[in-house]
Prior knowledge:
The chain has helices spanning 7-20, 66-72; strands spanning 4-5, 25-33, 37-45, 53-57, 60-64, 76-82, 85-91, 97-98, 104-106. With 107 residues, the chain is α+β, with helices and mostly antiparallel strands.
Amino acid sequence: MAITMTETAASRVKSFLDNRGKGIGLRLGVKTTGCSGMAYVLEFVDDLEDGDQVFEHEGVKVIIDPKSLVYLDGTELDYVKEGLNEGFEFNNPNAKSECGCGESFNV
């Protein structure tokens, strides 16, 4: 089981954490919502919770809870810029389909 991130994503997360001035990493998770059933959740982490799995890349920790890991195992987090739009992109091999806006997925 693993969660990875590109060098670009790791650099962006480091920048966000530096600007924030605290935090041990970024939590990646899922919640039930959206057109397709599940949506990605990203939030800063100050303290680990029981059962959290920690994956590290380029000195950045990605923290994920066991429930979310089932849906996100093998996911690569990327940060992309396309024209005026920029943001995190999830390359999730478990997603069978995504909604048109890219905000939710199903497995």
